[in-house]
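Quick one: structure for this chain?
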Amino acid sequence: MTFNILKSMLAGVALFSASLAIVQPAQADAISDIQGKGVINIGMLVDFPPLGFINAENEPDGYDPDIGKLFAEKLGVDINIVPVTGPNRIPYRSADRPTF
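Got it. Here's what it folds into:
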């Protein structure tokens, strides 16, 4: 009985270790890369008011775009807001569409 418990625990540890090897950390361009390009692409949720939504002019609006604009201004680059929603944010990030 004790051997089965130990075997199960070792299998669980092995499975957990294997899952850690598969996970890759999030990655963004270095600040010097962004400044070299002259533009920062920022993905923003546009289905989560008041943080992010589409305004009457059909542009991203809210708290997040305001912070993104300040961030771009401090870096001295233009901003390109990439509107994302909950369901498409992971596929967009995997395709390197937004920088952040």
